[in-house]
C-alpha cells in the first residue's frame, strides 16, 4: 500500500495527452511533438482508483474505486441509517428517484478498459509494458473493472455491460444474472493471469502485490456468492466454496485489507473530510448510537464525536423538516468521529472483518465446516483492531454477553448486526447487505415521501437514459416489477 500524492498530481493532464491522435486530413501538422501518443497506464490505474482530483479547495474525490460515489456516498448511509440529516432531510425521507452512473462509465471503467486495450494491442503492448508486465496490468485492471461493475449492478440492477465501453451510444442493458456469471469468470481468469514480471507501478492499493490481489479477487467472489443466497443458493454455495478453497486465500487479516491511504493534501484527502468542510449536514443517527450504547461497544467513540456535554447522542433518524428544526434547535447531537473525518483516514474497500463475517455466515449455512463462532469472534476482533480499540478483557466480556454471543436461532441476525457495525462508514455495502439479509432490523421513517413509503431497494436509472438510450431503457424497465422506481427489487433481492 502506497500513498496517492506523488502519483496523480498531473493525472488529468497525462490522461488527456494520452488520448491525443493526429488528424488524417492534416497529416502531422497538428501533432504536438511533446505530447504522449500512448496513455500512461500507471496514471490511468491511479485515476481509476482515486477518481479525478477536485478542482476546488473544498471539493472531494468523487469517482474511482475509492471516490465518494463508490463507498462513501451519503444517500446509502442514510438508507442504512448510519447518519441522519441535520437541515434538509429530503434524502432521509427517500425522495431519491434516480442516480447518475456517468462517472462510473466515463471515468473509472473507461480508464480500466483503456489499460486493457493498450496491453492487448500488439501495436502498443510493448510500450506500455514499461509501467508493469502486460499480464500484471491486465489482471489488476480486470479485477478492478469487475469490482466497479459489481457495485454498479448492485445499485441499479440490469445495466449496460457486455456492450458498454465500445463507443456506442445505444447500448442494451444486460441482466444482472448474466453480469454476475461473467464477473465470476473474470475474477477467476484475472487471478490466473498474473505473472512474475514487473509490478504495475500505478497500484496504490497493494503496490502490485500479486498475493494480495489474488486475495482481493477471491474475497470479492465470496461476497458476490453470498448475494445469491435467496435467488440461487446452489450457485452461491458452489462459488463461495470454490473461492474459499482457492490456494490464493482471501482477506483474513487487517494487513491484507484493501484500502486507499488518503493524504493530507486537499485534492487527495478522505472524501468524508471534504463533506464536512464548512458544512454541517449530517449527524450520526440515533439508530447507530443507541445500538452501540446498548452493546457497550468501544467503537462508539471512534464512529461518533461527543456532544458539548461529553455524551454520545444520536440525531433522530427520518424526521421531517419541521420536526428536525425543532429538535436541532433544542438539542445537541453527535457528528461523525474525528478519526472518521480525518483527512488521512483510509478508504476501506474490503476488510478482514467483513470477510470473517462472510466465513461465519457460510459456516452457519453449512457450506464450510469451520467453526462459525470462532470466525464471528475473529471478525469482531479484527474490526476492533482496525479502529484501535481492542482490549482483551473488554473483548471477552463483549463477545460472551447475551446481546452479542450468538445462538443457533439468532446466529444470522447477529452476524448481520455485527456486519452493519463493522462496515461503518461504508453505507453502500451496508445498504446492500441489509437488502440481502434484512439485518439489522431497520424501520423506514414514518415521514417517507416515496411511493412505497419503504427504504429504497435500488436506484432509479439516470434521468438521461429515457432520451439518450430509449429502446434499451424501455426494455430494462419493462422487466422491473414496479417499473423504474426505488421500490423495484434487483435480481438477487428477494
UniProtKB/TrEMBL annotation:
Secretion signal, residue range per the UniProt entry: 1-27
Classification via InterPro entries: SusD-like_2, TPR-like_helical_dom_sf
Keywords: Lipoprotein, Signal
Superkingdom, natural source: Bacteria
Pfam family, one: SusD-like_2
Name of the protein: SusD/RagB family nutrient-binding outer membrane lipoprotein
Organism, scientific name: Spirosoma endbachense
Amino acid at each position: 500500500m502506497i500513498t496517492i500524492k506523488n502519483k496523480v498530481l498531473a493525472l488529468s493532464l497525462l490522461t488527456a495527452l494520452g488520448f491525443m491522435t493526429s488528424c488524417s486530413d492534416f497529416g502531422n501538422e497538428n501533432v504536438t511533438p511533446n505530447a504522449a501518443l500512448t496513455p500512461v497506464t500507471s496514471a490511468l490505474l491511479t485515476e481509476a482508483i482515486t477518481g479525478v482530483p477536485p478542482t476546488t479547495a473544498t471539493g472531494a474525490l468523487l469517482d474511482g474505486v475509492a471516490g465518494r460515489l463508490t463507498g462513501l456516498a451519503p444517500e446509502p448511509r442514510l438508507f442504512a441509517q448510519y447518519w441522519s440529516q441535520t437541515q434538509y432531510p429530503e434524502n432521509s425521507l427517500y425522495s431519491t428517484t434516480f442516480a447518475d452512473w456517468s462517472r462510473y462509465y466515463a471515468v473509472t471503467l473507461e480508464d480500466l478498459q483503456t489499460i486493457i486495450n493498450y496491453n492487448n494491442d500488439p501495436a502498443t503492448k510493448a510500450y506500455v509494458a514499461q509501467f508493469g508486465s502486460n499480464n500484471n496490468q491486465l489482471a489488476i485492471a480486470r479485477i478492478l473493472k469487475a469490482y466497479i461493475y459489481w457495485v454498479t449492478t448492485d445499485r441499479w440492477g440490469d445495466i449496460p455491460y457486455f456492450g458498454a465501453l465500445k463507443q456506442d451510444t445505444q447500448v442494451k442493458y444486460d441482466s444482472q444474472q448474466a453480469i454476475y456469471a461473467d464477473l465470476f469468470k473474470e475474477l477467476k481468469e484475472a487471478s490466473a493471469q498474473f505473472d512474475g514480471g514487473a509490478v504495475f507501478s500505478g497500484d496504490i492499493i497493494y503496490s502490485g502485490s500479486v498475493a494480495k490481489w489474488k486475495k482481493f479477487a477471491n474475497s470479492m467472489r465470496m461476497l458476490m456468492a453470498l448475494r445469491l443466497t435467496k435467488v440461487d443458493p446452489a450457485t452461491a454455495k458452489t462459488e463461495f466454496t470454490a473461492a474459499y478453497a482457492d490456494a490464493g486465500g482471501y482477506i483474513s487479516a487487517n494487513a491484507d485489507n484493501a484500502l486507499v491511504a488518503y493524504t493530507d493534501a486537499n485534492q487527495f484527502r478522505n472524501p468524508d473530510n471534504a463533506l464536512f468542510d464548512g458544512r454541517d449536514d449530517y449527524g450520526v443517527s440515533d439508530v447507530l448510537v443507541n445500538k452501540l450504547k446498548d452493546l457497550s461497544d468501544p467503537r462508539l467513540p471512534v464512529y461518533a464525536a461527543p456532544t458539548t456535554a461529553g455524551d454520545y447522542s444520536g440525531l433522530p433518524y427520518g424526521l421531517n423538516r419541521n420536526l428536525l428544526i425543532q429538535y436541532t434547535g433544542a438539542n445537541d447531537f453527535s457528528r461523525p468521529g474525528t478519526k472518521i473525518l480525518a483527512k488521512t483516514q483510509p478508504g476501506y474497500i474490503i476488510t478482514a472483518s467483513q470477510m470473517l463475517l462472510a466465513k461465519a455466515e457460510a459456516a452457519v449455512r453449512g457450506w464450510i465446516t469451520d467453526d462459525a463462532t470462532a470466525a464471528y469472534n475473529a471478525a469482531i476482533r479484527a474490526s476492533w483492531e482496525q479502529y484501535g480499540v481492542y482490549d482483551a478483557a473488554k473483548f471477552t466480556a463483549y463477545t460472551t454477553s447475551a446481546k452479542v454471543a450468538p445462538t443457533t436461532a439468532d446466529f444470522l441476525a447477529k452476524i448481520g448486526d455485527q456486519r452493519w457495525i463493522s462496515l461503518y462508514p461504508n453505507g453502500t455495502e451496508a445498504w446492500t447487505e441489509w437488502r440481502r439479509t434484512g439485518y439489522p432490523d431497520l424501520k423506514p421513517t414514518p415521514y417517507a415521501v416515496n411511493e412505497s413509503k419503504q427504504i429504497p431497494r435500488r436506484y432509479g436509472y439516470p434521468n438521461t437514459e429515457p432520451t439518450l438510450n430509449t429502446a434499451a431503457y424501455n426494455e430494462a424497465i419493462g422487466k422491473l416489477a414496479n417499473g423504474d422506481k426505488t421500490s423495484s427489487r434487483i435480481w438477487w433481492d428477494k
